[in-house]
Amino acid sequence: MTVLVGGSGVGGAAAAAIILGVVTSLAAVGYLVVTRNKTVFRAVTVVAVLVIGITATWVGVVNADFTDSSGAGPDSKVTTVATTPTTTATSAAPTAAPTSPTSVSSTSASNIATETTTREVRLDRPSGIDLESSGTKGRKTDGATGGIDLYLDDFNVLHANGGDFHKDGGPEAGARARCAEAIAAQHNAEPQLLPASPGMQYCFTTSEGRTAWLRVKHSALLSFDAGYVVLAAAVW
């Protein structure tokens, strides 16, 4: 009979003890059969063999109680391996695309064409002013000649170097377009004017042929000695 014993340590020893006890017990029974005529000797021998077999079997069973289902004995060391939890990386929320800056619309070409840059000028009689210069007060002169664009004579009459005046009406912002049209068509042409009433508006041409505009802001022409007029004027 071939017996395969597996395991090691206490588990293996217990199995061996049990097998030894069983084999010894079987040997004792066999011996009884063989020595049945020798009563005393047989009895003593059988008892001794049975004691050995029972003892071996008991030792195997007791030792087997200390063996757990995995085959590890009481002296076996259990090694605990710490497991590292797996962290699932959460993808970051996509960064919102920067909002495009609000574009600031530039002034349209039509609005630029109607814009005016006016300045206040004063003409005492008799005096004239070059509107293409930065002056704001007229100087003594003998007429609307040379670089003089506007001239106020001794009789409170206003003259333009570039030709006639053209009566204008409407807001200052649209004066440039209106004046260009009026001068080209020679609308409401007046060779000279008496700027006696505030609010009067006229278009004219400068000594350099540029489009110009004026509005009477204040008039003090009734004075016999010191008559003057204050104008708002623009040149394009």
Describe the structure in your own words.
The protein is α+β, with helices and mostly antiparallel strands and 236 residues long. The chain is built from 4 helices and 9 strands, in the order αααβββββαββββ. It has helices at 9-34, 39-65, 109-114, 175-185, and strands at residues 119-124, 127-129, 150-152, 158-160, 165-167, 189-190, 201-205, 211-220, 228-235. Strands 1-9-8-7-5-6 form a 6-stranded antiparallel sheet, covered by helices on one side. Helix 1 (9-34) runs antiparallel to helix 2 (39-65). The two termini are 130 Å apart. 21% of the residues are buried. Residues 1-10, 65-94 and 97-114 have low confidence and may be disordered.
The helicity comes to 25-40%
Let me know the average pLDDT: 73
- The string of secondary-structure elements, in order, is HHHEEEEEHEEEE
Q: Tell me the number of helical segments per DSSP (H or I, 4 or more residues long).
A: 4
Any idea what the radius of gyration is?
65 Å
Beta percentage is 15-25%
* Outline: rod-shaped
Largest sheet: 6 strands, antiparallel
- Helix/strand-derived category reads alpha+beta
- The largest sheet has its strands arranged as 1-9-8-7-5-6
The counted number of beta strands is 9
Low-confidence stretches: 1-10, 65-94, 97-114
CA-CA gap between termini = 130 Å
